[in-house]
């Protein structure tokens, strides 16, 4: 069954069996997990950090940023979770995926350049709070994506 909405649930750790349509977030805010929105039943575990995914919860609705691209799954689902709603991004070509990854990499590099830091290893920055710089950037990205995928 395809999920059109996700309700979020704060948990101590991601449970072994995930419920359809639930986006789990750890109390430490270091990882989120959900079942692929296409209904294939695969688990999507997203690390939360300044250079991975971020989650914003606004009036009980969760937004996960950036999009979820399950290229490694047979379904190759690509969607956004905005304000708890699933927005399907359609099938991206391999070329578009490669370009997206490239852009993401460039974005990460410029982010750390602005902070005057070298990118840390994933474990080291998992629990760091998001600096304000990243928040404004995400807000701009959110506005941009929303415009791009507005129907
Ligand atoms: Zn799927």
Summarize the structure.
By secondary structure, the chain is α+β, with helices and mostly antiparallel strands. 28% of the residues lie in helices and 28% in strands.
Calculate Rg over CA atoms.
Answer: 15 Å
Strand content: 25-35%
Bound heterogens, unique: zinc ion
Indicate the overall shape: globular
Report the major sheet: 4 strands, mixed
Tally the beta strands: 8
Mean pLDDT: 80
Low-pLDDT stretches are 121-127
Helix content: 25-40%
Number of domains: 1
Order of strands side by side in the largest beta sheet? 1-2-3-4
Q: Helical element count?
A: 3
Protein name: DUF6527 family protein
Structural overview:
- With 151 residues, this protein is of the alpha+beta class.
- The protein has one domain (7-148).
- Helices cover 28% and strands 28% of the residues.
- It binds zinc ion (ZN).
- Zinc ion is lined by residues 36, 38, 40, 42, 70, 73, 75, 77.
């Amino acid at each position: 069954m395809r999920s059109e909405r996700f309700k979020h649930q704060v948990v101590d750790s991601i449970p072994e069996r995930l419920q359809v349509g639930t986006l789990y977030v750890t109390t430490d805010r270091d990882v989120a997990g959900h079942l692929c929105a296409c209904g294939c039943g695969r688990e999507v575990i997203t690390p939360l950090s300044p250079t991975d995914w971020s989650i914003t919860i606004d009036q009980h609705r969760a937004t996960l940023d950036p999009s979820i691209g399950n290229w490694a799954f047979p379904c190759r689902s690509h969607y956004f979770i905005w304000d708890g709603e699933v927005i399907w991004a359609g099938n991206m070509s391999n070329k578009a995926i490669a370009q997206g990854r490239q852009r993401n990499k460039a974005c990460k590099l410029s982010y750390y350049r602005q902070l005057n830091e070298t990118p840390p290893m994933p474990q080291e920055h998992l629990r760091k709070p998001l600096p304000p710089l990243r928040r404004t950037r995400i807000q701009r990205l959110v506005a941009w994506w929303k415009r791009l995928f507005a129907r």
